[in-house]
Give the backbone structure.
Amino acid sequence: MVKIPYGKAVYLVSNNINKFYEAREVLNEYGLATVMLRIKGSEIQSDSIEEIAKESARTMAERLNLNVVTEDAGLFIEALNGFPGPYSSYVYKTLGNEGILKLMEGINDRTAEFRSAVAFAEPNGETKVFLGISSGKIAYRMVRGREFGFDPIFIPDGCDGRTFAELSIQEKNAVSHRGKAFKKFAEWYISLIKLKFK
Ligand code: ITT
């Protein structure tokens, strides 16, 4: 059995396997193991993904009596005043990519961004949040590839016009909201555990 040294495991509370795969890849580069805890909690309603992630992490850390990480992410479309934003999960399940493309019909300004808020909480302790943004455009049609949420319709800047769905996990992490937020978290976390276990 592989023994993970204390502090080197990050407990990610999420029900989204794609999120786990992407986060694991980033954290692995820092020598951190990722444990996915598929636990359903109640998410607060808020316009701020930062607040949602923070509150989820705080309540989960207390409930599980464990240091945990949560992430809240969303797609913000400029011409739709930031929709679906914090409601991305619900909108993906109801309208899906086809529905977003329909809403965007006849709109030339395709500017959009993905945002990620990664929160870390200790039971009854500190909560820290790390943000990542990936700017890009909404495609005119779905481009299939790796299937994850709005990936088939989002074209990140600086990737030769390919959608997120066409990128490998490594390529996506290099430019994605999640990649950036988890990198910031990992750098902070590594320095924290170095201090704690010196
Ligand atoms: P949790 O259990 O971790 O909360 P979730 O699926 O509810 O998982 P979020 O609220 O963070 O995750 O994200 C909302 C939705 O936005 C998600 O279900 C996807 O449909 C979409 N989404 C988030 N990040 C994405 C990404 O990197 N690429 C494509 N779609 C993404």
The first helix runs from residue 17 to 29.
